[in-house]
Design goal:
alpha+beta, Beta-Lactamase, five-stranded antiparallel beta sheet, two-stranded antiparallel ribbon, 8 helices, 7 strands, 59% helix, 11% strand, Sensor-like_sf, membrane, transmembrane, PDC sensor domain-containing protein
Amino acid sequence: MIIREIEEFKLTKSKIKAYLSYIFSQNLPNFSEDIDEEKILKSCKDISDELMGYDTFYILDKNGYQISDNLVFSAKGVKNTFKGEDKSTKSYYKKAVKEKRAYLCEPYPGTFDSKLKVTMAVPIYSQDKELLYVVCCDILLEDILKLINPSSVDSAFGKISRFSYFIISITLFCVAGILFYFGVKSIIVTNFSLNDTSKIFESTILLTLSLAILDLIKAYFEEEILGRHEKNSTNSKTMIKFLSSIIIALAIEALMLVFKFAMTSPKEIIYPICLIVAIAFLVASLGLYIYITKKAIFQK
C-alpha cells in the first residue's frame, strides 16, 4: 500500500510537520549558551520518549558531516552507524540550513531495506545566531502516519476498514450479478410477445441497476482497498455515477408506466406523471450537486 501511504502523507504533511516541530522546539536547546553534543543527545532522548520510539537520531555539524552514531533510543543501541559521512548533499540538510528552520523531507526508501521513511532536520544555532549543528531524525513513514492519524491505512483500524470494504464489495458484486442474471433472463429465457414491451423495460431497469452497483463497487474498491486516488478527485464522482444510473432506471420505469396507463387506465396516468416530476427534481438536485462540488474543487 505504498501509493496509499504517500498520498496520505501528502494530505497530512503540514499536520505532521507542525506536530514534530512543536516537539523538537520544546526539547532541543536553540539560540542559547553552552550548546554541545551531550545536551543535544539528552534532548533527543526526551524527544524519542514522546515519539514512542519510532525514530533514529543523528547529529550533523554545520558542514553536513555526521558527528554522532545513528542512535535508536527505543532499542538502547546504535543502528548502522554512519559517523563521519558527508551528508551535506542531502535535501533535508540543505533545506533546513537554507530556510533556517525545521524541515520535513518527502518519503524515500531506506538504505538497507525498501521501507519508506522521512527525515526531520532541525538546525541548532548559538546565541549569536551562528549555525552549530543540524539534528536529524529518521522515522518510518508507516509509523509517523500511525502516530499522527491512529486510523491510518496501515493501522489495525485501517486494515479492518479495508477488509470490511472488501466483504461489502463482494456482497454487492453478487447482488449486481443476480440483477444482471434476471435482466438477461427476462429477455432470453422468458417467452414474450413484441406487442408486450414490459419485459424489455423490466430487463433494462434491472441491467441499469446492475451497472450502477458495479460502478459503485469499482469506485470504492479502487479508492478504499487498492488506495488509488486521482488528483483533485472526490467521492462526488462515485455519487454522481450512482445517482445518474438510478435516475435513468427511474426514468425508464416512468416511461413504461406512462405507456401502460395510457393504454389501460388513462385516469391513473397522474401517478407516472408524479414520478416524472420527482425524477426532474432529482435531475435538478444532481445538477446543483455537481455545480457545488466542481466549484469547491476549483476553489481548492
